[in-house]
UniProtKB/TrEMBL annotation:
Keywords: Amino-acid biosynthesis, NAD, Oxidoreductase
Native source organism of the sequence: Geodermatophilus obscurus (strain ATCC 25078 / DSM 43160 / JCM 3152 / CCUG 61914 / KCC A-0152 / KCTC 9177 / NBRC 13315 / NRRL B-3577 / G-20)
GO MF term set: NAD binding; oxidoreductase activity, acting on the CH-OH group of donors, NAD or NADP as acceptor
InterPro entries: D-2-hydroxyacid_DH, D-isomer_2_OHA_DH_cat_dom, D-isomer_DH_CS, D-isomer_DH_CS1, D-isomer_DH_NAD-bd, NAD(P)-bd_dom_sf
Keyword flag Transcription regulation: no
Residue ranges annotated for the D-isomer specific 2-hydroxyacid dehydrogenase NAD-binding domain, each copy included: 113-285
Protein name stated in the entry: D-isomer specific 2-hydroxyacid dehydrogenase NAD-binding protein
PANTHER family, per the entry: D-ISOMER SPECIFIC 2-HYDROXYACID DEHYDROGENASE FAMILY PROTEIN (AFU_ORTHOLOGUE AFUA_6G10090)
Signal sequence range: none
Similarity comment: family membership: Belongs to the D-isomer specific 2-hydroxyacid dehydrogenase family.
GO BP annotation list: amino acid biosynthetic process
Entries under PROSITE patterns matching the protein: D_2_HYDROXYACID_DH_1, D_2_HYDROXYACID_DH_3
Length: 318
């Protein structure tokens, strides 16, 4: 029997959003709705499985883990890349790593949900109203304000367009962004220091790498206006979490909307859970019905194609 493990299926959504019956009748699909951190526990859980479907970067697959899974024949990750998988080690062990398509709008939409929730104090006002109160805060206008987009790629460009629709002045910076590329997107390129010093809303849309890890740190946060908002729907380690906590606790920025964290799921004792002026979501950027249809539907097709001996979407080692 072919055994397939679907990891970190927190909402038990894999069965709803893909037709697993397309696989051979002898295939057994086991979905795990909880997350396991310890490598020994992961190795024990996956012992005897031929195929693993991993959801984004929720469970790391370093060489040390892959070497403990001798029966593994195929590793599928949702999305086109997964920084938590040692693709080179998998290749050395003869295990192809496949990706899936994606649906790009979910993270963009959540970015604006967080911007608006922080700017208009939505969670606080909702809680106050339910407790019998009325109008406790004063919101911040977006029209006429400056939006600073850190990373003007596929997602950052979409975020910028929505900012323009709100009537915001949009500026952008990334290490490789040119003035010409910014102009094509209808925004102005500025230097990094200028972006953090002038933006009323700073939103991060970069790929996590050695170059971007900790890019938004103490100095960048210190340059921000006391009235400014930071939003991160990209990857947690791009923003220095300790520096952000200090800036929030000391009131040096007005607030933050955070969807991604250094460690996920966010530990129950994380100080971020108690931090003032924050709106926190549990990495929901890509968690939409249309995205899950693409992720899990393509994962099923990857497994089916692999079993038929047909080409699959193999991720090449970096």
């Amino acid at each position: 029997m072919l055994r397939i493990a679907v990891l970190d299926d927190f909402q038990s959504a894999a069965a709803e959003f893909a037709d697993w019956s397309r696989l051979p009748e002898e295939a057994e699909v086991v979905s795990f709705a909880d997350h396991v951190d310890d490598e020994d526990a992961v190795a024990d859980r996956l012992a005897g499985f031929d195929v693993v479907v991993a959801m984004r970067e929720r469970t790391p697959f370093p060489r040390s883990l892959l070497e403990r899974l001798p029966e593994l024949r195929l590793l599928v990750t949702t999305g086109a890349r997964n920084a938590a998988i040692d693709v080179a080690a998998a290749a050395d062990l003869g295990v192809p790593v496949c990706g899936t398509g994606a649906h790009p709008t979910g993270t963009v939409e959540l970015t604006w949900a967080l911007v608006l929730a922080v700017a208009r104090h939505v969670p606080e006002e909702d809680a106050g109203l339910r407790a019998g109160g009325w109008q406790r805060t004063v919101g911040t206008d977006l029209a006429g304000a400056t939006l600073g987009v850190v990373g003007l790629g596929r997602l950052g460009t979409r975020v910028a367009r929505i900012g323009q629709a709100f009537g915001m002045d949009v500026v952008a910076w990334s290490q490789n962004l040119t003035a010409e590329r910014a102009t094509e997107a209808g925004v102005r390129r500025v230097e990094r220091d200028d972006l953090f010093a002038t933006a009323d809303v700073v939103t991060v849309h970069l790929v996590l790498s050695d170059r971007t890890r900790g890019l938004v740190g103490r100095d960048e946060l210190a340059r921000m206006k006391p009235s400014a908002i930071l939003v991160n729907t990209s990857r947690g380690p791009i923003v220095d979490e300790a520096a952000l906590l200090r800036a929030l606790s000391e009131g040096r920025i007005a607030g933050a909307g955070i969807d991604v964290y250094d460690r996920e799921p966010l530990p129950a004792d994380s100080p971020l859970r108690r931090s003032p002026r924050t709106v926190l979501t549990p990495h929901l950027g890509y968690v939409t019905r249309d995205t899950y249809r693409v992720f899990y539907g393509d994962a099923v097709e990857d497994v089916a194609a692999f079993l038929r001996g047909e080409p699959v979407r193999v991720i090449a080692p970096a």
